[in-house]
Amino acid sequence: MKNKKELGFFEAYKQDPIKADLDIFGRKTDESRRGFLKKSSLLAFAALIGANIPFAANYPSGLIPAALAAVDENFKIEGKNGLLYHNDKPITAETLPQFFDSEFVKPEHFFVRNNGLAPEIKDLDPKNWKLVIDGESCLKPTTFTLEELKKKFKHYTYALTVECGGNGRGEIIPATSGTQWGVGAIACGRWTGVRVKDVLESCGIKNDAVYVGYEGIDIPLDGDASKKPISRGIPIKKALEEETLIAWAYEGADIPFMNGYPLRLVAGGFPGSVSGKWLTKLSVRNIVHDGPKMSESYKVPVNPVAPGTKVSKDTEMKIIESMPVKSVISHPITNFKMELDKTLEVRGKAWAGDLEVKEMEISIDFGETWQKATVEKPLNRLAWQSWKASVKFPQKGYYEVWARATDTNGKKQPMVLPAWNPKGYLNNSCHRVAVYVG
């Protein structure tokens, strides 16, 4: 890698955003591409970009400017584009924020998150696909073909939000293990299928049912097909909600291969790990499901812990259920340039797990003041919501537009970081983009 003088600072940073030498800010960012920024170093940053920072006095300690926090490298997965690559084993890739500007996420832009290896295409024949319904609390265990599911039960289409529990992990400080997601491990679109409720009730549900667990045909990373890389589940109450689907279509077409073709569970509002892909079994359990990734993963401490705490086995943990309120800016993209005296329209999406977003706000002075945005009603329960606002900037310089959502219970997104946890889950801090006004 060439030095910064040969490349220019931003080019050098893009080549290696995690380990790039940011000594101009007083330290290196080995822990996270977001890193820490000393308040006094804003002067150095302003000199670097050649722009004034009008609201520098309000800038929170501990943040690298949004201008340096984004990486925009693309990669290729068959049938996908506009994704940012993280890993290839398992495959993980997130959607770039600008692709949230459409009403719903297009199939080719739907993020990819696997815990194991995707099955072989040859093993995904919908004509021979079967779904087993069983479990201790199932009265009549039954096996359905995909065709039988389509013929026997009424079809429903709902716009449902699916978000990885670790979305935003790349901003957690101190850093935690796991995929270092930005804001793009989230998708909302119209799913078509049959309700879990209808299928389970046709098989009979015992009074002692407490959970429904799933299985798919994905393979552990070591290639041992006799094991399951993941088999999580949802409380029976969630399974029996009107919107919880056994789905075969997304946005009017077959579910994309990497997102669970030909059949998957979709439980909107809960972490995406409960919406099992390549679905072959639903088990009605009289206990909390105990499949892989249920005992230790997708849990947070019941009581808050200090950042960096090594949590012991005795620490009381709780399973993540409804995701927290959150929003994303889809326009403009970060490092946007515009002229003074022009009006900027800011657009995005917001969601709140099982709840609804009742208010959206944006800030251009690092959270010192906020102005309300217009937020639309969701298409249906558990769908995300579009929002927009118009803003004019008071003078030339470097700005960050921050977005903040409030749910129907009155909870707001935190400005910077929420409570730390050892797996880096549930980061719903404000999304922010850099804007240069000249």
Could you give a short description of this structure?
Helices cover 10% and strands 29% of the residues.
β-strand number? 23
Low-confidence stretches: 1-39
Mean pLDDT: 89
Main β-sheet, spatial strand arrangement: 16-18-21-20-19-22-23-17
Helix content: under 10%
Beta-strand percentage range: 25-35%
Count of runs of 4 or more consecutive helical residues: 7
The sequence of SSEs as H and E is: HHHHEEEEEHEEHEEHEEEEEEEEEEEEEE
Structural class determined from secondary elements:
mainly beta
Could you describe the largest sheet, including whether it forms a barrel? 8 strands, mixed
Shape: elongated
Cα radius of gyration in angstroms: 23 Å
The end-to-end distance, rounded to whole angstroms, is 32 Å
Plain-language structure description:
The protein is mostly beta strands. The chain has helices at 4-7, 9-15, 42-49, 66-69, 146-152, 196-203, 236-239; strands at residues 83-88, 91-95, 112-113, 130-134, 142-145, 156-163, 186-195, 211-216, 233-235, 245-250, 253-254, 264-266, 279-285, 299-301, 317-319, 326-331, 336-338, 344-351, 357-363, 371-375, 385-391, 397-407, 431-437. It has an eight-stranded mixed sheet, with no helix packed on it. Strands 5-4-13-8-9 form a five-stranded mixed sheet. The protein is elongated, with a radius of gyration of 23 Å. Residues 1-39 have low confidence and may be disordered.
